Amino acid sequence: MSKSYTRVASRRSETSFEDFKKAYTRALAVAESNRCLYCNDAPCIEACPTKIDIPEFIRKIGTDNVKGAARTIFTSNILGMSCARVCPVEVLCVGDCVFNELEAPPIQIGKLQRYATDMAFEQDWQFFRAGKDTGKSVGLVGGGPASLAVAHHLRRKGHACTIYEQRDILGGLNTWGVAPYKLRADSAMREVEWLLSIGGIAIETGISVGKDVSWAELEKRHDAIFLGLGIGADQWLEIPGADLDGVEGAVAYIERLKTGEVSLKDVRHALVVGGGNTAVDAVRELLGLGMQNVTMLYRRTEEEMSGYHHEWDAAKVEGGRVVWRSLPTKFAGKGRVERVSCTRLDTSRKPIKGSEFELESELVLFAIGQEKLADTVSGLDGVKVERGCIVVDEGGATGRPGVFSGGDCTNGGKEVVNAVAEGPAAAERIDHFLRGGSHA
Ligand code: SF4
Question: What phi and psi, each to the nearest 5 degrees, are found at residue 343?
Answer without folding.
Answer: -135, 150
